[in-house]
Amino acid sequence: MQRQSSMDGNICTIHVDGIPQDTLTKVESYLKPFVLSLDVLQQVSTRLERELKRGLGKHSHHRAAVQMLPTFVTATPDGTEKGDFLALDLGGTNFRVLHVRVLEEEQKVVKMDGEICAIPQEMMLGPGDKLFDHIAACLGDFLKSQNLQGKILPLGFTFSFPCHQKEIDKSILIRWTKGFQCSGVEGQDVVKLLREAIHRRGDYDVGSIAMVNDTVGTMMSCGYKDQSCEIGMIIGTGTNACYMEEMKNVKRVESNLGRMCINTEWGGFGDSGSLADIQTEFDVLVDKTSINPGVHTFEKMISGMYMGEIVRFLLVKMTKDGLLFKGQTSEVLLSPGGFETKYISEIEDFSAELQATVRRLAPECDVTYLLSEDGSGKGAAMVTAVAQRLARQSRLLEDSSGEDSDDQD
Ligand code: BGC
Description:
With 409 residues, the chain is an alpha/beta fold. The protein is built from 13 helices and 13 strands. The chain has two domains: 36-65 and 268-361, 3-Layer(aba) Sandwich (Hexokinase, domain 1), CATH 3.40.367.20; 83-222 and 374-398, ATPase, nucleotide binding domain (Nucleotidyltransferase, domain 5, 2-Layer Sandwich). The protein is 40% helix and 18% strand. It has a five-stranded mixed beta sheet, sandwiched between helices.
């Protein structure tokens, strides 16, 4: 169940024929903590803004719950990008490999082909080198099936976990989230781990690698169609957002020039206790029973990996209180994962309400929503394409300034 906003802070009073009013009143009391008034939402928004600023600060970012990670993506597409790319997408229970073509003339990113490989749960919790060997094997099989083994294509690697990005192709995993807990990867450069796994096989190679968070891919894939798109947001298995920020505000990076995309990692909002007053007992239970208690509090309150469990814990309690199923719990109801998030998506239709609430909270902002079509696949290719365009442009600039100085001689 998603927390609902309501203008007066009350949910509608429920009336159902044949059900005693005191039962309905009890049901209401269970649901009330999930309803946030506009006033409370405004307070939460102010707290988030404070956390975002703390994450950008030169010294304060070390203690920030919202990490505001620099991505080294300094430009959005300008429409002149082109070429063939590979994209890898790791972030959920499946992992994808894509061959993507960026067509300059039509300003289009076309998926040539793609493949999905499952990641068995024991691999999500096992040694990191096994995971990267599996990824390299899936990529190898895909290249073979596409007759691309001999080609050295640039690769966009969407890795949807918090990373300290040192450069576009150097990215240190801070921590796993969303059910992953592979050993030997936290604190390591994931691009290096991927390259090593590819070299262990030795039967193919890839060109330059650009490491991308899925939010960045989402922003970039929409940015190709609409160049004013400067925010990427994901509410899926996990949640996160990124946006283009003026470098002068990113105090943790030594440069005042231009702009850079910041991966907020807002899933960590609340890790310092700032959401304690709106966490329900069910949120607390979901956190306690997760594989990483105390971490990614906001993500656990709103995203797909956890919403089913929040509702299941609520249903169990209501059943034990005699309000549901004649007081009889069942094996399914008592099993973790027994109530899937997809049922909530069917009940709650996620987008009109979201847009209306954003309008109320930020009336001065005119936000247009674009649905990203395969952001974490095509977008990763787009980040690689933009990086190549910038390199091309800077080479041209160097050449022409060389010619200028020759002229002066
Ligand atoms: C990760 C983010 C990611 C988000 C959405 C979170 O758990 O920390 O990096 O963007 O999930 O996939």
